[in-house]
Amino acid sequence: MTEIRTANAAERDAILALEAERQRALIGGDLETLARIFDDRLVHIHAPGVVHDKAMLLEHVGTRRAYRSIERGDLEIRVIGDVAIVTGPIVNELANPDGSMRTQHGVVTQVVVRGASGKSDAAWRFVSFQLTPLGEQVWGKLPSEEEAAR
User: Fold this and answer.
1) How far apart are CA 98 and CA 61, in angstroms?
2) Cα–Cα separations (whole angstroms), residue 95 to 34, 101, 112
3) Which residues of 24-42 are buried (b: 16+ CB within 10 A; e: fewer)?
4) If you compute the radius of gyration of the chain from its CA atoms, what whole number of angstroms results?
5) Residue 99 has what DSSP assignment?
6) Who contacts 116 (Cβ-Cβ below 8 Å, separation ≥6)?
7) Contact (Cβ atoms closer than 8 angstroms) between residue 128 and residue 103
8) Which of 17, 43, 45, 95 is the most exposed place for a label (fewest CB within 10 A)?
């Protein structure tokens, strides 16, 4: 069975730097950087459930320029071979089509792969992104969560 482990310091630093580069490129509309750090097989699922491949996401960023700021909280990074799964909170400040602004709070799961798309380098690239917006939690906390909070 393949080991699932916490990223070591070098992997964590590289993946956090990649995520910071993604944030800067989305805010700045830097399509060249995004094309480099997104794997050709990217699947990007936006908060409302809209699914984009790499070409569509680049078009989305280039034409809509919606991202104004992106903040991430503490990220958990687990590694399985040459794949890393990154999970954690996100807050996006986004422009709407009418020019107004909105703030979107959520939790993101990202998948990055080392040496993706047959590239000979060992760089990490994004292959999947899904944002789940925070919403009403009708069930409340589990007993174990209540105990941990005490």
Assistant:
1) 16
2) 19, 5, 27
3) ebbbeebeeebeebbbeeb
4) 17
5) S
6) 39, 40, 41, 123, 124, 125, 127
7) no
8) 17
- Is the model's pLDDT at 102 over the cut of 90? yes
Q: Give the integer Cα–Cα distance in Å for 89 and 104.
A: 11
Copy the structure tokens of residue 96. 């709407």
Q: What is the pTM of this model?
A: 0.91
Average pLDDT over residues 34-61: 97
Location of structure tokens 């800067």: 24
Compute the average pLDDT of residues 45-54: 95
- Which three-class secondary structure state does DSSP give residue 26? helix
Q: What is the mean pLDDT of residues 16-25?
A: 98
- Cβ pair 3, 76 in contact under 8 A: no
Whole-number pLDDT of residue 13: 97
pLDDT reported for residue 115: 84
